[in-house]
Amino acid sequence: MTAVGLASPFELLDELKRKVRTLQQLQFHVLEIVGALDQQGAAETLGYKDLVEVFKHVLHWDPKVSRRKLVQAKALCPTMTPTGSRAEPALPGVAAAMAEGALSDDHVDVLAEAMAELPAAVEANVVEYALQHEPRSTKAFCEQLAHHLDQDGPEPEEPEPVRRKNFVRRQWKGGRYLLSADLDAETGAKLDALIDPLTKPEPGDLRHAPEREGDALCEIVDLALRADQHRVHGGEAVQLTVTVDYDKLRAGIGTARLDNGEHIPMNQVRKIACDAGIIPMLLGSRSRIHDVGRKTRTINAGLRRILVTRDRGCSFPGCTRPPKHCEAHHVQLWSEGGETNLGNLTLLCRRHHDLVHHSDWQIQMTGGIPIFRPPAFIDPQRRPRTNHLHTTELQDLPAPTGRLKPVLIHT
Q: Which domain holds residue 17?
């Protein structure tokens, strides 16, 4: 290629992709060697108790790195049975993708952990997702997939799971007050609903997110003290949006979805109703009453709630940001004649909102769903993408064995 200093950004990106692909292929070959050494019992042959000690002396790897490589090798490399026959790897699809240099070892960690809980029949689906997204988004996809394959929880004859208790740890140290908590999803969603509105940075605000969130918590404490016996929000209870299938609500089965993306058992919905306002969300032809048209660029509360229910968070492919961290984006800009209605709006987090305004990413609405087309340097064919974390339809997945079954995610 052209000398690095003289190459264009597109030439550099192409070369970087080639180098990374080669590097990932080499990482797979490393795992093959690690797996072969493990299969041969090389540590015992060399007089060591295990390969972790061998690698410490030969490769100067930390034990953590060695254990990670051994776990990856067990998932991706063939094994020999006691009879001497060759057994295929536990994750053949993941192994094939990494052998081609298409997946990183971080992807392998995520997929190996996820497939330990998922049926083998969906491996191709999670690999396909991983080929297009970073490990963090892939992990979120796998978690969502696991939930929707078994959203009713344990079989009725299984014992009721023990409800985890809430914990708060408080300690004074060096004139500072250290606070940590482990809370249930319901309480966490309420706390998010209180903190999030107070963490938005003002112009010129140089505080990092953890500092803004810490200041927001302090402000909530002050509000609670001033409120006396009243609720914090102007005397009203904290408000949450709960999305739930109507038939399941009537039957009292399955789960409901909080506006932060967490799922809670149906029997907790009534409990939330005692402490917080629940906003029921229904999408249908009557949603047009919330349309603003050309009157204003700003959306009203009713339209935003419908938008939140449809998009469930940032609609950019692979993004995990919840609705509270998102802004409404006009697909056809309002300044160019676009209307303020459900068919021309989508939720985007601040980072991706800036991206679509300043890059070649394009959005179009198809069947009421935002579809994204990446720049040519990412995909020369600019094939359409959606955020599968929020809008995936699982009816096309192969049916796994056992009582698990694919479930359509309604959007």
A: 4-116
